[in-house]
UniProtKB/TrEMBL annotation:
The chain crosses the membrane at residues 294-314, 387-412, 443-466, 473-496, 546-570, 576-605. The keyword Transmembrane helix applies. InterPro entries: PigQ/GPI1. One of its GO terms (cellular component) is membrane. This is Predicted protein. Keywords: Membrane, Transmembrane, Transmembrane helix.
Length: 735
């Protein structure tokens, strides 16, 4: 085999490796490829801990099989979590290297099994057969593995034969390495490797050190799902695109998945050793945990009760409002307010649903856990931020009510007198030197002035309730959040400018009819006719009478067109300005709703939770080699009869290439932009096209972006069921 990549955890048991001379057994995954091999080490436990924690072979096998079953299905299909091999650390000089005398192993196996006999009689009885036939087992093992480093005591030898998949076994030697300019003191050196009971020679070995992903801290990702991708400034050839579609030779997806699950596998394997704490510490931790659970129990009951009261109030308010006869009219007139209030109420009702995450994959895979945490906390963080901004807006409106009322009155007076009335009078004269039709200009001007006067009178009567309107906006912002008063303000603007919208619609109707008449008469003169079935212009023979009537109509319509166009342009500018203001406010509301506040907060505090690709950094080493750079051990094997001695010199490879596994991280824009793109994708460009087409053709102008409404349907469940749902949500939220 040409290459071997060893994915080695950097921060696991470093203190033990530095101070203890022992043999560790490796747990993880083995991924064979064509011409290469990937070994992902998730955990390594000392030989003594395994013998102390697991009394028999069945318990040990159950622990490993249960750990493998908790892994994601994709990872189980690629490789199974099992024992990879062993690793020798800080051996004495007499036993330096991995190959030691067979007699030492035999004596050690008898001592260890004697210790097992004191603690578990069943285990000693099960291992008695191996003690009786120790010479035969060891000879068979030596013949099979061709090396005495695989000779273990009876219990671990059985584990090796029964648990190791397809007879694969990896042996490492960890040695101090001073040449590397790093704080790492132990470098794993591959001694030998068996695949399918066959010894495999490795030409190139690459050790990749990685930080164990921990939930709430970091994880790794290939960056294929990165929200931002660089676009090529030029069009690439088809053969490049075809190469990118092909599956890469080295599939890193299962390897990254295994690394993200390594922490869960490590904890599940060492579940016995973590319980060997002192009795006093255990008692103290039990008391503290009991107090915390009592406090969390009462807190959960209070939160569930308050949420249930809010649920009852919202359901009663909706039921009373649905029985009002003007419910449908109010829903159409105040459509922005209705939509945002419905969204806010749905978010308040659905918060316990989002906090309940019982997915097993989120507990095993750190990447899934991070994504689930962001989705879980997205709803309540959105509600909290909206309420906070609404409280600031409501307090500002209440504290500056007099100033706001004076500004509103001044703005209404200016818009009515200086813009609308003065503009209509100016259009009835000679606007910008254009000579208009006097009769048509006076007719359109008088209609506009009368409509402006009637509507200004109505709003003068409504002005007495302006303080109450501002107070309603302020309290709605404090109670329901920032987006609700802004949506109410959009509906108020549309109601206050309804006369401008109606005048624009009336004049656009006249303008569009004149455009259509002129277009039809122009086709008549050309001898063409529009075919609505085939959507094209066809030739047509008109009569002389049709040409005469068309000539008589074409002249007055063409001469009246500039007068209607001037009025249409004026009111279209006013209407477009109002629509753009409402669109800006509507966009601000949508941005507030779609901003992932939880992801932003996590990006500021823990940027490692947003990886966007892997990066391998080679660790620099000195070029001068020392005697410790290559481990050469002279192995003396002596038979039991003492008649024959064989000397064999085994050279272990020098220190392999060592790299650190790091990640590139997403920027703040790359984290936020996918959420905005999901909402605004396919909306902005069609809206601009429809607005420009409507203004030029005199057709209907869109007044809203038609953004997607709340994806949450209204909730209809019982009060007791909702309380239990909130209670379970508080329990999951604590976890």
């Amino acid at each position: 085999m040409d290459r071997c990549r060893i994915w080695w955890p950097r921060q696991q048991h470093q203190s033990e490796l530095e101070s203890v001379s022992a043999r560790y057994f490796l747990f993880g995954w083995l991924f064979p490829h064509a011409g290469s091999l990937d070994i992902v080490v998730a955990a390594f436990v000392s030989e003594g801990e395994i013998l102390r924690s697991f009394p028999n072979l069945d318990t040990f096998q159950t622990a490993i099989l249960s750990s493998n079953k908790t892994m994601p299905t994709v990872l189980q299909e690629s490789a199974a979590f099992t024992i990879l091999g062993d690793c020798v650390v800080h051996l004495p000089r007499d036993f330096e290297g991995c190959c030691v005398k067979q007699k030492y192993h035999l004596l050690r196996a008898q001592v260890v099994q004697a210790e097992h006999a004191d603690t578990n009689q069943d285990s000693s009885i099960a291992l008695g057969g191996s003690l009786g036939s120790e010479d035969q087992d060891q000879s068979e093992n030596n013949g099979k593995w061709e090396c005495d480093c695989s000779v273990l005591d009876g219990f671990l030898d059985k584990c090796k034969k029964s648990v190791v998949k397809r007879g694969d076994w990896v042996h490492f030697c960890c040695k101090p390495e001073k040449s590397l300019k790093s704080n790492l003191n132990q470098i794993p050196v591959l001694h030998h490797l068996y695949l399918d009971d066959q010894k495999v020679e490795i030409n190139h070995c690459h050790v990749i050190l990685y930080d164990v992903p921990v939930a709430g801290r970091n994880h790794f990702s290939l960056g294929e799902d990165a929200p931002y991708r660089m676009k090529s400034p030029f069009k690439r050839p088809n053969w490049i695109n075809n190469l990118q579609k092909k599956r890469p030779f080295l599939d890193l997806d299962p390897i990254v998945l295994a690394i993200n699950c390594s922490n869960s596998a490590r904890l599940s394997v060492a579940w016995k050793t973590t319980n060997n704490s002192s009795a006093a510490h255990f008692l103290f931790a039990t008391v503290i945990d009991a107090l915390v659970q009592v406090a969390q129990h009462f807190t959960g009951i209070i939160l569930a009760s308050v949420s249930t009261i809010i649920y009852i109030f919202i359901q009663l308010f909706r039921k009373c409002l649905s029985h009002v006869s003007e419910h449908f009219i109010l829903q159409k007139v105040f459509r922005h307010s209705w939509k945002n209030m419905h969204l806010r109420c749905s978010q308040i009702l659905y918060w316990p649903i989002f906090l309940q995450d019982t997915s097993l994959s989120s507990y095993v895979n750190v990447e899934y856990a991070h994504r689930a945490a962001i989705q879980k906390h997205a709803l309540w963080s959105n509600i909290i931020m909206d309420l906070l901004m609404g409280f600031i807006l409501g307090a500002a409106l209440l504290l500056n009510m007099e100033t706001i009322c004076s500004w509103i009155f001044a703005l209404l007076h200016y818009m009515t007198d200086a813009v609308l009335r003065s503009g209509c009078v100016w259009l009835m004269g000679v606007p910008a030197g254009f000579k208009l039709n006097t009769e048509l200009a006076e007719l359109l001007g008088m209609i506009s002035l009368n409509a402006i006067q009637i509507y200004s009178t109505l709003w003068f009567m409504v002005g007495g309730f302006l303080r109450h309107i501002i107070q309603g906006l302020a309290f709605s912002g404090i109670i329901l959040g920032f987006t609700v008063p802004v949506s109410i303000f959009i509906d108020i603007i549309q109601l206050a400018t309804l006369h401008v919208t109606m005048l624009q619609w009336l004049i656009s109707l006249i303008y569009s009819r004149q455009i259509q008449t002129v277009t039809s008469l122009w086709r008549l003169f050309r001898g063409r006719k529009w075919n609505p079935l085939r959507q094209r212009l066809d030739s047509y023979d008109y009569t002389v009478e049709q040409h005469v009537v068309g000539s008589l109509l074409f002249t007055p319509v063409l001469l009246l067109l500039p007068t209607a166009s001037i009025f249409y342009i004026f009111f279209s500018i006013l209407s477009s300005t109002i629509i753009c203001l409402c669109i800006v406010l509507e966009t601000a509301i949508c941005i507030i709703h779609s901003t992932p506040y939880a992801a932003v907060i996590l990006w500021v505090t823990r940027r490692q939770r947003f990886p966007a690709g892997l990066m391998f950094l080679p660790m620099s080493s000195s070029s001068v080699s020392t005697d410790d750079d290559a481990l050469s051990v002279e192995y003396h094997s002596t038979s039991l009869s003492g008649e024959r001695k064989t000397d064999e010199l085994i050279h272990v490879h020098s220190v392999p290439l060592v790299s650190e596994l790091n990640c590139n991280y997403n920027t703040l824009g790359q984290v936020i932009w996918p959420h905005y793109q999901k909402v605004f994708n396919g909306i902005a460009l069609p809206f601009c096209k429809q607005l420009a087409h409507g203004i030029l053709r005199g057709t209907r102008i869109p007044t809203t972006l038609h953004l997607p409404s709340s994806p949450l349907p209204w909730m209809h469940i019982g009060i007791r069921e909702y309380w239990m749902l909130c209670r379970r949500a508080t329990k999951w939220g604590r976890n």
